[in-house]
Amino acid sequence: MAALNPVVPELHRLLERDPYLATFKQDFERRYTVFHRILKNVEDNEGGLDKFTRSYQTFGVHRFVDGGLYCKEWAPGAEAVFLTGAFNNWNPFSHPYKKMDFGKWELFIPPGPDGVNTVSHGSKLKVVIRSQSGEILYRISPWARYVAPEGTNVTYDWIHWEPPTPYKRKHPVPKRPKSLRIYESHVGIASPEGKIASYKNFTHNVLPKVKDLGYNCIQLMAIMEHAYYASFGYQVTSFFAASSRYGPPDDLKELVDVAHSMGIVVLLDVVHSHASNNSEDGLNKFDGTDSAFFHSGPRGTHTLWDSRLFDYANWEVLRFLLSNLRWWIEEYGFDGFRFDGISSMLYHHHGIGVGFSGDYNEYFGMQVDEDALAYLMMANHMIHLLHPECITIAEDVSGMPALACPVMEGGGGFDYRLAMAIPDKWIQLLKEFKDEEWNMGNIVFTLTNRRHGEKYVTYAESHDQALVGDKTLAFWLMDAEMYTYMSILSPLTPVIDRGIQLHKMIRLITHALGGEGYLNFMGNEFGHPEWLDFPRRGNNESYHYARRQFHLANDQLLRYRFLNAFDRDMNKLEERCGWLASPQAYVSEKHESNKVIAFERANLLFIFNFHPSKSFTDYRMGVQIPGKYKIALDSDAPEYGGHNRLDHNTEFFTQEFSHNNRDNSVLVYIPSRVAIVLENMDATK
Question: Quick one: how far is CA 155 from the chain centroid?
């Protein structure tokens, strides 16, 4: 591939969209230069990006056609490296690696008699490191493809994974969705039973639910192997291994394949921001030093997470992480990534003790880790060059400008970024304000305050709000009454009624106004009760809260089914009308005393009356497109637990009467605590 021009090719586009960034033009140019230098070195010295990012084909342990093995590791601080395992009766020194340049080591093991595999599928292996101090260390290869603990052991073993009949994909990959509706999921908790659920369970029991609910994307958490289950997958120990606690690798491949058959794309929650500090079954001190993959000394440790921080300027770290992304795409069929903990990567302070006000000076200068930013630019460039259909999402709480702009503009290259301020706003309102005190303008501002030219994934709540110590929206709204009054045989209390109505309204206005993609954490669509807590010492290793009680939404005697039905129909309406893929909404009304918000998007008129008691008859709503409107979605419908105050046979005809800066208007009845979506029937013919 021809070398890229070190001048940022399309920086002018970014600066035209946001002239305030012109002050930082040199920062964008310097960042791009770092990225370009890496890319050019890959092209000149590694045989190109394609070869460089397939390094998982040479590092680790690989079988030759004749049955021999080729083994390769990077251990720059080691004095000697050996391979041991069941194949040599755990002799630690009988199979030494040969030292190569740049800290690399290689070993060739010839085939056994008659071409018999020396190391069989399912047998255990260890890399033996003789450190500079002479210490003998037993390690798992950073490139290990399968690790699992034996029995009740907490330490993981490296298991050579080479099944005689590997899984073959049966279904084509779906096209990249124009509107991204994400179901954030965790395989292990995806069952009402108090145990670790399996890939098979997810494939057979959860995927059909996701399809029925109208989601077209699954974001899988806690897939990269992590020795500590309660870390929620964020303390990764083996980056190339799919977690064995849910089943063998082929079961995960089947899960992705079956999702594809349903038209669902699958994203991996990838953790490249840090790594577990485990050394026996992790990357830490792999070669006996505190560096190698990580920064040495204090810079290499995250003080809050107690984990190790990658050295993104190190060539072999770039090889490892870029190849890791490629591996998950090509080996398992993932359709992209949600990059976790971006804020920690982007800044030398890792966001610890730092608040971001939005002042542009916070995003530039010495506090920015430009090596980490260049890695993210490389990752997005590689993914989009070699797999254009793949999707990347950044989880950044800081709000760094241009993170979701193309690399050619000097941006980070992500397709989407998470709208992380929105769930905080809803929780703030529910915790600190009475319903009568809700500020409509502030709600609209929070939902629409996003950078022009960057796409956002909006959400009312994610796994963060479900974790122990926090509360889901349903729990903030209904709390203890969920235990006693969610049955339709029990009285509809004011608390439950308010909770059900606001739960629907909050999710719909977030979905329709907050971004270009939408995310929901599994179970929250039906107001899953209680919190999420993994087995740990503090709860006596209980699985009681580490599960999802999907059966609650299927029980016809419980009110959870109303929320589930609304979530499904909300997604189905978006699928038909495509508001997430449409330009940002035009907000025509945010009336403080009436508590009414109205906006237009995708030939739909969205109307929200947040007032706890006031209903309005013949309420005039401004609309731009004239014609006949009908109700497309009504949160007050009885099938959604509403009070059935609207007649769905009503036809609303516009009048040539301008209102709220719109050329036309329509008169509607808006009951209290109701969301209505009106569809222009003439525009959709």
Answer: 27
Residue 446 vs residues 121, 401, 458: alpha-carbon distances, Å: 54, 17, 11
Active site residue 330: no
Confidence of residue 5 (pLDDT cuts 50, 70, 90): low
Which amino acid is present at 656?
Answer: E
Half-sphere exposure for 356 (CA within 13 Å, toward CB): 21
Q: Taking Cα atoms as reference points, which of 326, 221, 321 lies closest to residue 267? A: 221
Q: 628-634 and 674-680: which strand pairing?
A: antiparallel
Cα–Cα distance for residue pair 269/336, rounded to 1 Å: 9
Each residue's pLDDT tens digit, 336-395: 999 999 999 999 999 999 999 989 999 999 999 999 999 999 999 999 999 999 999 999
Q: How far apart are the first and last CA of the chain?
A: 47
Question: Residues 594-613: what's their mean pLDDT?
Answer: 98
Model confidence at 1, in pLDDT bands (50, 70, 90)? very low
Q: 92 to each of 87, 98, 143, 282, 477, how far by Cα in Å?
A: 11, 15, 20, 19, 60
DSSP SS3 for 489: coil
Determine the residue type at 212. D
- SS3 (DSSP) at 6: coil
**Contact (Cβ atoms closer than 8 angstroms) between residue 214 and residue 263:** no
Q: Phi and psi for 370 in degrees, rounded to 5?
A: -70, -20
The single residue listed with the structure tokens 């690790």 is 147
Q: Among the residues of 75-190, which ranges form H helices?
A: none
pTM of the model: 0.97
Helix (H, G, I), strand (E, B) or coil at 447: helix
pLDDT attached to residue 3: 45
Give the integer Cα–Cα distance in Å for 401 and 362. Answer: 10
One-letter amino acid at 155 equals: T
Is residue 685's pLDDT more than 90? no
What is each CA distance from 197 to 245, 280, 546, in whole angstroms? 9, 26, 10
**Choice among 340, 497, 567, 679 that is catalytic:** 340
Residue corresponding to tokens 């107690």 = 306
What secondary structure does DSSP assign to 616-645, as a single string? Answer: EEEEEEEESS-SEEEEEEETTSGGGT----
340 a catalytic residue: yes
What does the alpha-carbon distance between residue 61 and residue 148 come to, in Å, rounded to a whole number? 17
Out of 395, 396, 525, 634, the active site residue is 395
Q: How far apart are CA 155 and CA 147, in angstroms?
A: 10
